[in-house]
Design brief:
Elements lengths: L1 E7 L3 H14 L5 E4 L4 H7 L5 H8 L3 E6 L16 H10 L3 E7 L12 H4 L3 E7 L11 E4 L9 E4 L6 H16 L4 E6 L5 H17 L4 E6 H10 L6 E4 L1 H14 L7 E5 L5 E5 L16 H13 L4 H16 L2 E2 L9 E2 L2 H11 L2
Parallel strand pairs: 1-2, 1-3, 3-12, 5-10, 8-9, 8-10, 13-14
Antiparallel strand pairs: 4-5, 4-11, 6-7, 11-12
The structure holds nicotinamide-adenine-dinucleotide.
């Protein structure tokens, strides 16, 4: 099992170091190889995704990724900015299915911005299509408006597009995932106004009828889904949606769980090769202070063992260890509350290693 370790920038290096400690503490044989990505790679090689890093990622079964970005790179040309490394990896590896679980741990219910009774026991999975939609659709650009409300004015435009096969494959991923959970899928669209999402709704319905009649399917407009996520989040099981709606809804769902520092994610291709990373960014505001929460990255390593490396028992062990350290009252500052014990990044990682037993 070969794992590419790409810590990246900011807190990326600190949190990935803890996840690597946890992986090394398992009795499994891994080949771990580290490479630079993002701003760190730009500083060293002049590109956020150097050829050597991309080759390593392609040759690995899975990638453990920290985070990339820093305000100091904001003035670079767009193709050289750290965040382009993630887009480049997604494209090169064909990572089209993004899994973002939102789980509210019993001990952290009070850290949520919602009332504890609304989030206690929350366990939902958002599946976001990752390679299509308005983020990649062509044509896009800036020009002089040929028509519209202000012909002749400067305008910018993007194109929302989805093809039938793209919708079919993400729908199947969602139905398969639901089969292993609560057997319910909510497909989120905006079919009332967008042609793209009318096709989305039609195709998801067809895939459901032909292949997954044992799973319950309902459809919800994205504006209603945004509202229901804060009104009654526990009524969802698996949510499947497009790239842009998924981007927004998964961040909204992350806050239900208390801290973005708790949320892992996985992006998979059709060969189950995957990129595993915390849902948060490089947090330049706390980088180097030793206070970042490493649990999202450690939980991403657990997802990696489950989805790409076929080691579900090892994944269960890590998840149980995380629950144990939370039960012991250990908290990084982002999830700290009165009566608990404040610890730093390293102490939290070491506590998880110890709790593996
Ligand atoms: P961010 O997620 O880095 O930080 C948002 C807030 O959450 C900050 O207050 C930060 O301190 C806090 N936070 C994030 N992770 C935490 C953790 N593990 N423990 C404790 N607190 C944590 O988002 P941002 O500030 O908007 O972006 C910072 C940089 O990260 C930007 O350059 C952005 O482009 C980049 N970014 C990268 C990724 C990625 O690598 N996948 C994702 C999002 C943002």
């Amino acid at each position: 099992m070969k794992i590419a370790i790409l810590p990246g920038d900011g807190i990326g290096t600190e949190i990935v170091a803890e996840a690597v400690k946890v992986l090394k503490a398992l009795d499994l044989k891994f080949e771990l190889e580290e490479a630079k990505v993002g701003g760190a790679a730009y500083d060293a090689y002049g590109h956020p995704l150097p050829e050597a890093t991309l080759k390593l990622a392609q040759a690995s079964d899975a990638i453990l990724f920290g985070a990339v970005g820093d305000w100091k790179y904001d003035t670079l040309d767009r193709p050289l900015r750290p965040e382009q490394a993630i887009l480049g990896l997604r494209k090169a590896l064909g990572l089209f299915a993004n899994f973002r679980p939102a789980i509210c741990y019993e001990q952290l219910t009070h850290a949520s911005s919602l009332k504890p009774e609304l989030v206690a026991g929350l366990d939902i999975l958002i599946i976001r299509e990752l390679t299509g939609d308005i983020y990649f659709g062509q044509p896009r650009g800036r020009r002089t408006a040929p028509d519209g409300h202000f012909p002749g004015a400067e305008e910018a435009f993007d194109t929302m597009r989805y093809t039938r096969p793209e919708i079919e494959r993400i729908a199947r991923v969602a139905f398969e995932a639901a089969r292993k959970r609560g057997k319910r899928v909510t497909s989120v669209d905006k079919a009332n106004v967008l042609e793209t999402f009318q096709l989305w709704k039609d195709v998801v319905t067809e895939v459901h009828q032909k292949e997954y009649a044992d799973v319950a399917l309902d459809h919800m407009y994205v504006d209603n889904a945004a509202m229901q996520l804060v009104k009654e989040p526990k009524k969802f099981d698996v949510i499947v949606t497009g790239n842009m709606f998924g981007d927004i809804l998964s961040d909204e769902a992350s806050m239900l769980t208390g801290s973005i520092g708790m949320l892992p994610s996985a992006s998979l291709n059709d060969k189950k090769q995957g990129l595993y990373e915390p849902s948060h960014g490089s947090a330049p505001d706390i980088a180097g202070k030793g206070v970042a929460n490493p649990l999202a990255t450690i939980l991403s390593a657990a997802m990696m063992l489950r989805f790409s490396l076929n080691q579900p028992e090892a994944a269960d062990r890590i998840e149980a260890a995380v629950k144990k350290v939370l039960a012991q009252g250990l908290r990084t500052p982002d999830i700290y509350s009165d009566g608990t014990t404040k610890v730093g990044t390293r102490e939290m990682g070491e506590a998880v290693v110890k709790a593996l037993g």
